[in-house]
Amino acid sequence: MLSRKVIVILLLMMFVISSNAYAADSKITVYLDGNELTFDTPPIITDGTTLVPLRKIFETLGSQIQWDNSTRTVTATKGDILITYKIGEKNGYKNGKAVTMEVPGVISNGFTLVPLRFVSEALGALVAWNGETKRIDITHQENATVELKAPETSYIPSINRLNGNQVGTVYVDGDWIYYTHPMDERKIYKMKLDGSMNTKIGDVVSSNHLIVDKDWIYFSTFEIIGHPRDYNLSPDNGVYKMKTDGSGLVKLLSGISIANMSITGDSIYYTKQFDASNVNMVKTDGTGNQLAYKSVWNYQILGDTIYYNQESRLPVDFYEMKLDGSNKRKLMRNISSRYQVINNSLYYTDGAYLMERLLNEPEKEPTKVIELNSNNLVVVNEQTVIFQKKNDMKLYKVDLLAKNVTLLNESAVQTFDVAGDLIKVTFANPVTFSWINWKTKEMIEFR
To answer: Which residues form a coiled coil (predicted)?
Structure first.
């Protein structure tokens, strides 16, 4: 039996530890349009997700809420947006569509806390996290349609699965766009979102698969020596990282050519050229390189879930599985190998129609969203698609709600890649490079 004195000491130690953890979380600051928000209880971080008091964040973002204490369910309305969420569950609902969160809402010390990113982005705001200062900036955009994202630790590819031409050549991080320059040996550049401060930051050629995570740029190189028909790969091909200012270049993996790459937490997942059905994993410091999954082809990781095709032969079956290998299930049979998952929807194309399948309602047949006659397209969010027509090779934008199609530029396009509101474009004849704002159709000039 423990003495009363020992028990008291243990309880005091637990209180000190708990108080220290709570104090660390209390350093988090949250700003809305530049104005700091104050909360009755400080925000906390759980498994990389920031949680804040429910009523404060919903009402600050302009929504009206109703709270059902018996079911611990909040219902929030703002214009035509309806959000419902039951505390303790990992799925919230925006206009009836499920949105999965990495961490559920909790009730702590009498306060109801919910994931800040889920609430903010569901209500049409953008969220940016600064890990060094522990500052969160929310940009409130009325009438914005924002793609809900995974937590800050998960990589959301700026290149989507439906566009077959590009291989991760742009990445948006805060106010910066990082990209490979098609007219300068695919070296890495960065610029502000408005086109200012355009600067080369790396001299490594043939860069692909750009990922920016915690002030580091991760990328691969793919270079062919000699004539392309000989297909002799450069021994310098591999996986690198460097600081976002271009310093501290480190080679993590040598002598391999990457087909697909993503980052979740402190792990890099990748497949090799000519071995694209086996997913490998290495730590972001270059250690622990190992085989992660067999017979996982053309994968996409969102949060703790990996989506993939079982084989490369067409048509293919589509699966999902937790990163730890559990809860594997087949979601659909016989789809195109080009697909993209956004929130709870699986988008794919057969070259004629853009199709949508709701992942939480697998018994329902997929629906034809719109006829595009395109293999190269980007589903930017639930409302907007950027695509290239087969017949004229020009870029168009389609509003999925209004079914309006808009020509973005009169010139034929060789390759394109979407980065936020901008499209990185290589025109075909003559071969030139530029950026187009898909919302305004304006060409972006470097400044």
So the answer is: none
